[in-house]
Amino acid sequence: MGYNFPIPPLVHLAIIMDGNGRWAKKRGLPRYEGHRVGAEVAKKVVEECVKLKIKYLTLYTFSKENWKRPKDEVNFLFDLLVFFLKREVENLKKQNIKLNILGDVEGLPEKAKEVVKEICEITKENTNMVLNLALNYSGRDEILMACKKIVEQKIPLSEINENTFRSFLYTKDQPDPDLIIRTSGEIRLSNYLLFQSAYSELYFTDVLWPDFTKHDLYKALEDYSKRNRRFGGL
């Protein structure tokens, strides 16, 4: 299945992959099964975005707030991350995808931190797509981090502007998201890319992430194709 509508310039797509737990509960399955299926959906979405020549794809993988979840679930999520990245590293290389992390890598469990750093290093020269995983991430913490670094480096007030501030963010070398998709029917950003999303188009769908298909991605892109992005102008 392809698409038969013109897609306006879309360089950076960000997705809040929500609804894994609810998907599992509806089927009488443990929550971890929703996360496992959701990871496979993420793989398919990455592959489709490569075909669509989307240069940056950001997936909200694990927020700082997610540490509040039951310990067994958190442990499973990081075990799944390690398994998935090790399994997919050859595909990342084959598709020329660079893995990049947005978030506090040092705060990850040791094994996850080791594997994430290793695969980021292996893929750092890849140029076809940048795959950002927002991992141990908080939009507010990112803004505070940037402020602290500016103070630490004693940058003169006269030199602090939007571009200076951007240079201290996790996404410092990347364009802002053109479109942010959130699944599962929730209608909020949940502390996701707060600075970067100032002029992002937002698309919300009731589809739970494990049920999200290529068709759902195209529906979001078709909706985006009808938007008139004025950035405050006429």
Structure description:
The chain is α/β, with parallel strands linked by helices and 234 residues long. The chain has one domain: Decaprenyl diphosphate synthase-like (Undecaprenyl pyrophosphate synthetase), CATH 3.40.1180.10. Helix content is 41%, strand content 15%. It is built from 7 helices and 6 strands. The protein has helices at residues 20-26, 31-51, 71-94, 110-122, 139-152, 162-166, 214-225; strands at 12-16, 56-63, 97-102, 129-137, 179-182, 201-204. It has a 6-stranded parallel beta sheet, with helices on both faces. α4 links the parallel β3 and β4 (129-137). α1 (20-26) packs across α2 (31-51). The radius of gyration is 18 Å and the shape is globular. The relative contact order is 0.19. The model has no long low-confidence stretch (mean pLDDT 95).
Q: Give the tally of β-strands.
A: 6
Low-confidence stretches: none
Radius of gyration: 18 Å
Instruction: Tell me the fraction of residues in β-strands, as a range.
Output: 15-25%
Mean pLDDT: 95
Helix/strand structural class: alpha/beta
Order of the strands making up the biggest sheet: 3-4-2-1-5-6
How many independent structural domains?
Answer: 1
The CATH topology is what? Undecaprenyl pyrophosphate synthetase
Note the total helix count: 7
Give the biggest sheet: 6 strands, parallel
Helix content: 40-55%
